User: What shape does this take?
Amino acid sequence: MKLLLTTVPGLEFIVKEEMSEAYGHLDIHFNVLTGRVFAEVKEPIARVLALRSVENIRFILEEDRTLEGAIERSLDEVRDLSKGLRTFAVHAERVTKEVGFTSLDLAREAGRILLEKLGLRVQLDAPDIVFYVEYDRGVYRFGVDITPFSTLRDRPYRKALHKSALNPIIAYAMCRLAGPARRILDPFCGSGTIVLEYLSLYPEAEGLCGDVETETALKASENAKTEGLAHIYVQDVLKPALRKGLEVDAIITNPPFGIREKAVGRLRRVYEALFMMAEELLSSKGKLVMITPRRELVQAKSLYLEREIVINEGGLASWIYVFGRG
Assistant: This one.
């Protein structure tokens, strides 16, 4: 079966890695910065639902140069899938914009065809099945939306959220890039997303979670009760509250960048303090993994750049940097 997996644009390679770990060798292809990964899976898709790098899953039944053709070619499977069901809805997406119709127009036309072919009733609020249709560069794809009412990005531990909480998929990708470690630190932890994602990936690790705001640290503490135990404390990165001689194997963080919130202290000073902290605390093979849209503030001195990845979320370009010891 052909699956369309969506993710944060720029992190398609993480989805490929995670899919390969779950299923072994697969036929997987994607274009970078589209947020869309296609995979051919022969086994049941239950394991896909456990992936932490995926946002939504669509089961693609057929594709064709016309919408009618894509639906017509998949009717036998559609009838099997909808057997015993009464209502349906259509989720549509116009991936490329060179045509004169909207996603809503596409959904309406697909709904009309399905209504005629299947005899099911349209129900937008709580349908029994949600079909998926998209238009992409002259091709119509038709299938079933596997995650129509929620996204795999939602995490059970996210009960108390910081106003600029990091997308857990991005946090998860950063944790994978950091790799296994005995002890990690996020000095700008917000509601704890990065540390809690890390503990879900490497449950034996020790997580240190600091933030300058007491209220924010309390939110991280509330979330940590669900996912795992982390050491949460209040600190100003300009005046670290860590014991002398402490060593960490990775610093994974999303420092402030002045769009949704202002840093306590000027941004440049805050970034300089972050790199100074990394130089002082990282073990001999330690890594600093950080994300920011403010490239001009990234100035590592004694650390060397291992990897730089551009992502795009909500129209905002950001860069994930992986630094190692020089």
Remarks:
- Residues 256 and 266 are 10 Å apart (CA to CA).
- The chain has eight helices and 15 strands.
